[in-house]
Structure formats: structure tokens, C-alpha cells
Design a protein that fits this description.
By secondary structure, the chain is of the alpha+beta class. Helix content is about 35%, strand content about 15%. Strands 2-1-5-3-4 form a 5-stranded mixed beta sheet, with helices on one face. The protein is globular and about 50 Å long. The chain binds FE2/S2 (inorganic) cluster (FES) (2 copies). One FE2/S2 (inorganic) cluster (FES) binds next to loops. One FE2/S2 (inorganic) cluster (FES) binds near residues 100, 101, 104, 138 and 140.
Length: about 160
């Protein structure tokens, strides 16, 4: 199988590598690069567990081919924290008990990270709509919504 060469930014670092053109981005991140924070649930674009940010937008990495990120900026859950310091959204998930089974959490974080950058002053309803594509079977949305609201409120209070 002919390999494709791709160059992209991943969590702030430039990468140049070759991939099988049939490989999904989720599999490439997990198995090719060892970034297992991106989880794979349904593998057909429904559950949201595999969400990563590509060029600022949340995408289902199970529906995207790795070759498609050539020239793009990719962010995964591993890029949120700075060393041992959790990102504001990660810290808010902890504070507001937004962590349930954990399998869905990376996708929730990446969906809301992209959403809060684009929507600095969301309503609760805005947040619920934003994560409506991230399926949580344990029904733990309340803490997640409160976490997102607290991050938005903190940013609104910042000069
Ligand atoms: Fe990608 Fe479910 S694994 S949406
Ligand atoms: Fe995974 Fe609710 S967070 S099922």
C-alpha cells in the first residue's frame, strides 16, 4: 500500500510522517502516535467520544482520514494541560464533578473547548446544544454544563 506523507501541527508541535491513506485520524492518533486519550466508541460519528479539534473546529476523528490533516492544526485532549497544570476547563470538570465514566470525557472536553473559544458568553441552553452530539449514557450532563458555565463566567470576569 502506497503511503502518504503528511505535515501537520499536533498540540503545538510540527509533525512530518507517512500514513496509510485508509487510516482514520482516530486510529492514527491512538495507534500511530500513542495518543490514547482520544477514545473510540461507535466508530460511525454518533457518540462524540473521538472528538478532536482541527483548525479550531471540533471534528469526529473516526470519520476523518489522517491524510486530511495535512497542513492542519490538530489538538487532542493531551494538549489541554500544561505539564501538571490542568486547563481551566479540565479543572472545572473536576470541581463540578463533570467526570463520570471517563470514556466520554476527552470528547466532551474537546467539544466544549472549541465551543467556548467560539462562544465566550454562552447560555446554559447553548452549552447543552453544543454537547448534544456527545453521548453520555450515565446521564452526567449536569456537572459538565456547570463546568462549562463556570469557565465562561471566569473568562467574562477577566479583564
Ligand atoms: Fe467517533 Fe463515536 S467514535 S463519533
Ligand atoms: Fe461516559 Fe457518561 S461520561 S457514559
Amino acid at each position: 500500500m502506497t503511503q502518504a506523507q503528511i505535515t501537520f501541527s499536533l498540540n503545538g508541535e510540527q509533525h512530518q510522517t507517512t500514513v496509510d491513506p485508509r487510516t482514520h485520524l482516530a486510529d492514527f492518533l491512538r495507534h500511530g502516535l500513542g495518543l490514547t486519550g482520544t477514545h473510540v466508541g461507535c466508530e460511525h460519528g454518533v457518540c462524540g467520544a473521538c472528538t478532536v479539534i482541527v483548525d479550531g473546529l471540533p471534528v469526529r476523528s473516526c470519520l476523518m482520514l489522517a491524510v486530511q490533516v495535512d497542513g492542519c492544526t490538530v489538538e487532542t485532549v493531551e494538549g489541554l494541560a500544561e505539564g501538571d497544570a490542568l486547563s481551566p476547563l479540565q479543572q472545572a470538570f473536576s470541581t463540578h464533578h463533570g467526570l463520570q465514566c471517563g470514556f466520554c470525557t476527552p470528547g466532551m472536553l474537546m467539544t466544549l473547548e472549541a465551543f467556548l473559544r467560539a462562544t465566550p458568553s454562552p447560555t446554559e441552553q447553548d452549552i447543552r446544544i453544543a454537547i448534544s452530539g456527545n453521548i453520555c449514557r450515565c446521564t452526567g450532563y449536569q456537572g459538565i454544563v456547570e463546568a462549562a458555565l463556570s469557565v465562561a463566567a471566569t473568562r467574562a470576569d477577566s479583564p
